[in-house]
């Protein structure tokens, strides 16, 4: 098989996308690991920062974590004083997760670092190339 043909196979495309994803994940994780934040904690805090208070289960669905994983992540950030859980006034069985002032300060700083890391990681592409890549994907 010619090199040009190999580069267009579904398997090769998958391999390239997988490697790109791994590389971006390493850049992303380095942007918040210094603050002792793991990926699941980061996505919870980031969602609360950008979407506001949310029910625990809604967070889990949006960030693709199982109910057990989201509960563990929320427990972890709550123990650090980064979020607070309150009962949902419309459904006493549900809990609403809200950033604390400490959590908001931390995630704002971490997210700014994350933005810089993602800009560095994608700096090899022009703005037009990024737009085209996103459109294609």
Explained architecture:
The chain is an alpha+beta fold and 137 residues long. Helices cover 67% and strands 12% of the residues. The protein has seven helices and three strands. The protein has helices spanning 3-6, 10-33, 39-51, 56-62, 67-79, 101-121, 127-136, and strands at 54-55, 83-88, 91-99. A three-stranded antiparallel beta sheet has the order 1-3-2. Strand 2 and strand 3 (91-99) form a beta hairpin. The longest helix is centred in the first third of the chain and has 24 residues, at 10-33. It starts with a helix and ends with a helix. The mean pLDDT is 90.
Strand content: 5-15%
Distance between the termini: 26 Å
Main sheet: strand order: 1-3-2
Mean pLDDT: 90
Order of helices and strands: HHHEHHEEHH
Itemize the secondary structure elements and their pairings.
Layout: H1 3-6, H2 10-33, H3 39-51, E1 54-55, H4 56-62, H5 67-79, E2 83-88, E3 91-99, H6 101-121, H7 127-136
Antiparallel strand pairs: 1-3, 2-3
Helix pairs in contact: 2-6, 3-5, 3-6, 4-5
């Amino acid at each position: 098989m010619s090199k040009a043909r190999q580069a267009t196979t579904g398997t090769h495309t998958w391999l390239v996308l997988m490697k790109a994803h791994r590389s971006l994940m390493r850049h992303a994780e380095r942007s918040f690991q210094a603050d002792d934040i793991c990926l699941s904690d980061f996505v919870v805090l980031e969602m609360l920062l950008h979407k506001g208070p949310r029910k625990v289960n809604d967070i889990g669905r949006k960030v693709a974590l199982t109910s057990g994983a989201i509960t563990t992540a929320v427990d972890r950030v709550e123990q650090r004083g980064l979020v607070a859980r309150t009962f949902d006034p419309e459904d006493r069985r549900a809990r609403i997760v809200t950033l604390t002032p400490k959590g908001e300060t931390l995630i704002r700083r971490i997210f700014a670092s994350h933005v810089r890391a993602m800009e560095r990681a994608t700096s090899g592409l022009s703005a037009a190339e990024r737009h085209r890549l996103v459109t294609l994907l």
